[in-house]
């Protein structure tokens, strides 16, 4: 009986040793990413896919020296996973909310505007670890020791400093809330699994003292099983270990340093809104000074002017420029059918009319203004823009209708701004971005805006005063923006013109002298009643309408072109004050009216609407002028 007991104990001891060895092996493989189940886990272990595709390419006979600027198969895997298999929606979005639960070295998305282009960064792309080729692509630091050798390959990657889009309204929801619970559940399961493994190991250790001593002997001899402190995986940085470092920026304004690989520079430009998908890191290694000796020489200059290590970094696999309609978070994505578009147009026009005191003419021009977009540039002319100057505001009306208009625009457009134009504002505010050569950074400013942004300028507060040199420069910047859709960026030794596509609405007492708008219209409200609350379904339909139809293609058939030409000639003969600017504005209004009905060709009915709107506008201007003359004579 004693022999049987000894055999059982010996068998249990052997089983326990083997079990612990297996556990240690599994944990070791997890640390190095060699687990078969994780090799193509693109979400949680993207670096595993990078490494394995690199090793596969090298094993097939490819020379790592030829990989600079090329994809050896890693990007192809992620493109297949994200696009071909439709898994992009599974990738969480990096934001000020999600950064507290996102795992470093996992796959994330970041949506933002390119605020600065920091140039290229040199890094060790491939090197030999003994006889084994390894890569540092898509990483901040090397995972293995490096020594300088002739086999070391120095590659380049581009650095983009990206920020949340300026003026982004709250309804533009970039959050990953549906994925938070999924992540938390996965974390709980992983913790429970580790706890069960630990409890099981403890239970086995309590079976016999001799088993414990035998295991300790194996650990000392083989070195494959570490002590408890060494067994813990280098887990991802937790909630508090990330967020406590976020001291260099507003918690609601999360920037991101994006590193671009294998992509031509012409694909992206300053102020583009881009969605990046790649590996998320937080830069903790940079703070610790965890560079190899080889890295010190390469990165010393780059780190002087790069952003703080206390911002997230994304090593980009794929990216795409986002249009306005792709920023909508609603599920309202219908086919732009004619009858549906007309119904939405009618309801939106009714809403705008209610917002601005039942001024139907102003509501029509407001609708066209919100649909405007720069479609082309001919010499210095930005074709498609339609700035609007509503006049006849006073302190009482601006406090009521100015606020209503601002709130309505915020609910309809994704990126909006409000400028209270005063002498003090012009004299003290930096409107144009400036290059700081000491930090080698582009300092952002009010007029560094993304395409499709909207600015409401309240000029009713502008009183008599003296502009200093900054004020004069700012006034000229605003004039060039509204006339030419261009902003001069200040590079100290020279100015660089940057094209813009910004809608400008000016609210003033009289026609603005600083901001010459395309459409000037006296504002004539007939009611001050509050508009009714708008259902979310209606808001989503209006947002879709404005985002989709502003990019509608447009053409004029030959027959219609002849009608337009004859009408322009007749108008010129009747009023010699009309010029090319007026006729260009009429054609823009015609295009926007066609677009507002979901049409791509200018029809005779739409052209007649153009002429009628222009007649009513000029009539109101004349009435206003006559009223002013009567008041001055009396």
Overview of the molecule:
With 634 residues, this protein is an alpha/beta fold. Helix content is 43%, strand content 17%. It is built from 18 helices and 17 strands. It has helices at 2-32, 46-59, 74-84, 177-205, 209-222, 228-231, 239-243, 284-288, 293-305, 338-355, 360-371, 395-412, 423-428, 469-484, 536-549, 558-574, 580-596, 604-633, and strands at 107-129, 132-135, 153-163, 256-260, 273-281, 313-321, 376-378, 381-383, 388-391, 416-420, 434-436, 441-443, 453-458, 486-490, 495-499, 502-507, 519-522. A 5-stranded mixed barrel has the order 1-3-4-6-5. The radius of gyration is 32 Å and the shape is elongated.
Give a brief description.
This protein has 634 residues and is α/β, with parallel strands linked by helices. The chain has 18 helices and 17 strands.
Labels describing this entry:
five-stranded parallel β-sheet, five-stranded mixed β-barrel, alpha/beta, 634 residues, 18 helices
In DSSP terms (H or I, runs of 4 or more residues), the helix count works out at 18
Total strand segments: 17
Major sheet: arrangement of strands:
1-3-4-6-5
The SS-based structural class is alpha/beta
| Strand residue percentage | 15-25%
Which bin fits the share of residues in helices? 40-55%
Oligomeric state of this protein: single chain
Globally, the shape reads elongated
What's the pLDDT, averaged over the residues?
80
* Unreliable stretches: 1-11, 29-38, 176-191, 196-248, 284-292, 299-304
Largest sheet: 5 strands, mixed, barrel
| Distance between the first and last residues' Cα | 127 Å
Radius of gyration: 32 Å
